[in-house]
Amino acid sequence: MDQATLADLIDGKLPWHQLKEVLSGNKDIARFDLYIEVLQSRVSFKETILLPLGEHLYVVVDASGRRIVKCDCGYEFGPVERNWKCASAVLVRDSDELLEEIYDPWNRCDPSWEELREFYCPGCWSLLEVEAAPPGYPVMFDFQPDIDTFYQEYLGRPVPRS
Amino acid sequence: MTTISTDLSQSPPAGNSPSLIEKMALSKRQYEETGHYKGIDQLRLKQTDHFRYERVWAELRGALVSARETALHISASPIVRNIGELCFALYTPEGDSVVVSTGIITHVHTMSEGIKYMISQAYEDSPGIKEGDIFCNNDPTLGNVHTTDVHTIIPLFYEGELIGWAGGVAHQVDIGAGTPGHDPVASANRYEDGFYVTCEKVGSNHQLHKDWQIRAGLSTRTPVYWALDEKCRIAGCYIVKEALDRVIASEGIDYVRQFMDEAVEEGRQIFLARIKERLVPGIYETASFFDAPYADKAWHPEARIDYLMHAPLTLTIGAGGQFHMSMDGASAPVPMPFNASEGSMQGALWVLLTQTLIYDGKVNDGAYLAAGHNFPAGTWCNAQDHSLAYGSPWAFLIPSFTGLFRLLSRGYFARGFREEIVTGYGFTGDPLQGGGFLADGKTYFPVSNFELCAVGLGARGTMDGLDAAYAMWNPEADMGDAEVWETIESGLLYLSRRYKPDTAGYGRYRGGSGWEALRYVHGVQALQLYSFREGRVFHGGAGLYGGYPNSADYKVRVHNTNMAQLAAARKPYPLGEADPSDSELERLVQGEFLRTNEGMMFPEAFGDGDLFLSLFSGGPGYGDPLERDPQSVARDVLGHVYLPETAERAFGVVVRTSGDEMVVDEAATKTARENLRLRRSARAVSYEEFYARERELITTGQLSSPVRQMYQQSMHLSPSWAAKFKQFWNLPDTFSL
Ligand SMILES: [Zn+2]
Fold first, then answer.
1. Average model confidence (pLDDT) for chain B?
2. Per residue in A66-94, pLDDT tens?
3. Would an 8 Å CB–CB cutoff place A112 in contact with chain B?
4. Judgement on whether residues B703 and B675 belong to the same structural domain of the protein
5. Hey, are the CB atoms on B597 and A134 less than 8 Å from each other?
6. DSSP state, B686?
7. What is the rounded CA–CA span in Å between residue B343 and residue B65?
8. Is residue B560 part of a domain?
């Protein structure tokens, strides 16, 4: 896969006949490096991307060698070991009124059984994650990547230090 | 609590060759000691002659697929004939699947559990395992998902020695449960689940036993469908047997024996390699829920509770590609038909893996061996009590496994395999069920609809989810023809089938759309209908990366309508309810409307002229809906996937009709999106404030009864989940709800 094709894939612009080939084909070993290249070229910050974490979010290594979660707008969510949601802004849809802003009254959940939590980036106000959970449910720590093992055991090379 | 004996130390039958019990114990030990299936670390056949090996694989795989495609024509049930709710598999002597057909392949592994159960119970001694024997099972506690999926299993012999098993499963129209249909809603215990067959020998000398045929024929409401489904399964098993005989004739018995074992080991190796190729090691976490508001509905006093199912899911991926999933913290079993056996959870795990990680490899029990799992004993997902009801475990199992797609997708995202991302799937629910008598008062007709086998898939990482075309348990989803359903549900006609707006989860890529079917009761003397799905909670969890959950269910039916008068006066009649808040049904029809914000409906009497609206789930979304291409939103509105007002309030896209087209008002859209973004910053609170508010709900006891009970159960059943909960909310060790 070349850079332009991957860029189209990321943007959802790859025509179906090409996307189908990608789906059905063998996975290219070089995909990850190419992926990082494409994503790194798109972000305005200078830090090296270690691992894409989700739409807008990246694990990067900063100048002092710390691994932090960063939004493509530049907002920093803190160390990767901590749930990035702890540095987000939150809206909880826990009433009929708030749920019915976006769902028909017949289509929503019952807020006494479940609420919607919207986690935003305080830098650019992108919606980064939605949780549907009962009131009082611990915030989900969606993904705690083992970055050292990933680079060493899966990619067979050391983690970039800066 | 009942313990089913799996003691492997029982004495083997007389004779020279090792007993099946010994073989199974040896295989287990070899795997534990070497980490390889039967200790096979080299794929000798594959390495020696790759083409021969793949040719044998292809021949067997082709035979399995052909067995399904051929045998389904013997069935008379649309569920089998049209939807293809059946599958076949070939097993090793120890009961590990080697090659499988297409279809409802969640059962490839459940039949494996059934075979292992028969072996562990020394069936070789009694009732004996001989050439020509036919076995039947549908007990979830011995290896099944629910009683409605009936298994036929035959041993395969070569020169007097058992060399494998063939198994087939088909989903029944009716299983003789307390409520008519295939997924009972009211059973509170095993004794209301319907007809139980417990790994029984039902035939010998290649013939079904007469006494068995009589018993089965009297045990369900639809004996003809039962008999033909059974013939269908037997035929498929014999097609598999003939294929194996052919391969033995051409390749020799030694080759085939070795092939079967190597193929399982290869399946295992492919699975591990796939994980290292596509995922990132680490810990992935999510949770799913399902509401069972039974307090005002249940027939038994002990079931009159409002219950919230809790399915926490943690996936750990190790340095060597090790896979381990755990549902530690799952809530308690219920006096409802939604309990799951460990085998059914294993089957579900297996069927999802075959759709995401190992769809093109050697799809067999090798992957299952490599997929470590913990379904905690004593919870709803491994209840270990045969006296519970297991009629419809799908209700809990389906939402709980949406989490697996979400978690794997986070790995695919990190690796750049965006094309593999799926945010989950809709609930293959709202199964309209029941039964009745036609106007003659004699002709019974089942309502056992299976068009639910085509709901919305979750959004992908590169595109929208499939509309009305996915079922998690059958990768070949199909809603079937309305006309075919009418041939069996002959007192219940279709007025429409069409997309249901606003069922698809919002996101940059939207979930697949759900749909609706309006049914009209006609020419009946009596009819009862029931149905179930989530209504008080959203299906599973939410989407991914800002994607929202698909809409929750509601129920609407109309009794004593004026449909006959409308027809006589040649006036318009309704086709559904595109917008429940401005209902076409209510505009066009008069009658007694029953409407609830729940998906759960117990059996209710219906009469001629009544209407029932079946609603089918959409899938969850992916990404921030404010990033969705406005032109795509306009197409959604034109295609009845979203109402125009939903386009504006959820996506910030303003559309206007222009002739037959739906056009985007660019300026108004820009303003609407800016306003929605401003509203986010104006209303959102800091994480600290959010945390404090949520914590207060717990410390001051402001939780509803089903939510409080869910936490109590999870904390009681799992000390580790309790510790996690208390640690997260900074509560003292002594805290209790
Ligand atoms: Zn940002």
1. 94
2. 999 999 999 999 999 999 999 999 999 99
3. yes
4. no
5. no
6. E
7. 24
8. no
The Cα–Cα gap between B488 and B654 comes to: 45
Residue A127 Cα to ligand 1 middle (Å): 9
Kind of pairing, strands B306-317 and B282-293?
Answer: antiparallel
Q: Same structural domain for residues B294 and B435?
A: no
Q: Is A155 on the interface with B (CB under 8 A)?
A: no
Q: Is residue A75 situated within a structural domain?
A: no
Please, which residues 35-64 of chain A have a Cβ atom closer than 8 Å to chain B? 35-36, 51-56
CB distance A143–B319 less than 8 Å? no
- Residues of chain B with Cβ-Cβ distance to A14 below 8 Å are 462
Is this complex's ipTM strictly greater than 0.95? yes
Preferred mutation among B410, B417, B598, B617 to probe A, highest tally of A CBs within 10 A: B417
Torsion of CA B533, B536, B537, B539, to 10 degrees: 20
Which residues of A fall within a CB distance of 8 Å from B500?
Answer: none
pLDDT digits (tens, 9 = 90+) for B368-412: 888 999 999 999 999 999 999 999 999 999 999 999 999 999 999
Whether B182 maps to a domain, the answer reads no
Both B126 and B160 in a single domain? yes
- Asked, for residue A10, whether it belongs to a domain, the answer is yes
Residue A15 counted as domain residue: yes
pLDDT one-digit tens code per residue, B39-50? 999 999 999 999
Q: Please give the tally of structural domains in chain A.
A: 1
Phi/psi region, residue B668 (left: phi>0; alpha: psi -120 to 50; beta: rest), is alpha
A32–B416: do the CB atoms touch at under 8 Å?
yes
pTM value > 0.90:
yes
Residue of B nearest to A58 (CA): B414
For an interface test with B, the pick among A5, A58, A130, A150 (most B C-beta atoms closer than 10 Å) comes out as: A130
pLDDT value at residue A160: 94
What is the tally of structural domains in chain B? 5
Give the domain extent around B663.
629-683
- The confidence score (pLDDT) of residue B392 equals 93
What are B694-716's pLDDT values in tens digits? 999 999 999 999 999 999 999 99
| Residues B122, B265 within the same domain | yes
Strands B323-326 and B371-374: parallel
Residue matched to tokens 């013997």: B74
User: Is residue B609 located within the same domain as residue B651?
Assistant: no
> A32 lies in a domain?
yes
What's residue B344's pLDDT? 87
